[in-house]
Write a structure and sequence with these properties.
This protein has 60 residues and is mostly helical. The chain has one domain. 43% of the residues lie in helices and 0% in strands. The protein contains two helices and no strands. The radius of gyration is 11 Å and the shape is globular. The model has no long low-confidence stretch (mean pLDDT 90).
C-alpha cells in the first residue's frame, strides 16, 4: 500500500515506479535505493503508518 503523502510503500519504502523498475535496475542502483529505504521506513513509522509491520526490504 502506498502512502498518499510520500508515494512510498508502507511495507518496503519504495515508490510504485521504483517497485516496477526494480528488476531492470543495475545492481549499483538497487544498492543505492536499498540504502535510502531505512530512512523512508522510519519516516513512515514516525507518522504511525507501519505500527503493525516488520521491515520488508527487497533483496539486491
Amino acid at each position: 500500500m502506498l502512502d498518499r503523502l510520500t508515494g512510498h510503500c508502507i511495507g518496503c519504502g519504495r515508490t510504485g515506479e521504483e517497485i516496477g523498475a526494480w528488476s531492470l535496475l543495475p545492481e549499483a542502483a538497487q544498492r543505492r535505493l536499498l540504502a535510502a529505504l531505512p530512512a523512508r521506513l522510519a519516516a513512515l513509522e514516525a507518522r504511525g503508518l507501519r505500527a503493525d509491520l516488520t521491515p520488508r526490504l527487497p533483496r539486491a
